[in-house]
Specification:
Order of helices and strands: EEEEEEHEEEEH
Distance between the termini: 26 Å
CATH architecture: Roll
CATH class: Mainly Beta
CATH superfamily: Hcp1-like
Helix content: 10-25%
Oligomer: single chain
Strand content: 35-45%
Radius of gyration: 19 Å
Structural class: mainly beta
Length: about 160
């Protein structure tokens, strides 16, 4: 029988934004996609195919989706800070890149694996269509481009000591 304790679930996750003036903001999303990259290497000068010197890495856009919420109590409008950050870039016609961190959570809702996206900027915002025949929930979709991402696996101190 397979020990599933070693696998990370795709059902439990959170996203942290390091927003200007708010330092840290955890935002809930129902769906995340786009954690992928592709290395384009057309280097014909390396017959052993061991060099990536001319290879360009292309990162897929990060897409985050959530239900549109209103009427939620806020402290100094911090709950709306993500939307305000996106809207301010449109108004100012200027990018304000931030770090963005996606966490896959373990059974205790602690981060098991995290991906940090460097210099994330919004490139698209979409609101689902109004549909009287649908499920009745408006959804917001945020799309981000970023410079790169890195993965970090969280380990407990005890677990790290036992694997030595």
């Amino acid at each position: 029988m397979v020990n599933t304790d070693k696998f990370v679930s795709s059902l439990s996750f959170k996203v942290d934004f390091i927003l200007p003036f708010f330092l840290y903001k955890e935002v809930s999303f129902s769906k995340i996609s786009g954690l992928s990259f592709k290395i384009n290497d057309n280097d014909s000068e390396d017959p052993d195919n061991t060099s990536l010197s001319s290879g360009k890495t292309e990162y897929e856009p990060l897409v985050l989706e959530r239900a549109l919420e209103v009427g939620k109590p806020t402290l100094l409008l911090i709950e709306n800070s993500l939307t305000a950050w996106v809207e301010n870039q449109v108004i100012a016609k200027r990018k304000f890149p931030i770090p963005l961190i996606v966490h896959a959570l373990d059974k205790k809702h602690k981060p098991a694996v995290s991906w940090t996206f460097i210099n994330a900027v919004p490139t698209n915002y979409a609101l689902s269509e109004f549909d009287s025949q649908g499920d009745g929930i408006l959804k917001e979709t945020f799309t981000f481009q970023y410079k790169r991402f890195s993965r970090y696996e969280h380990k407990s101190l005890l677990g790290s000591l036992l694997t030595i």
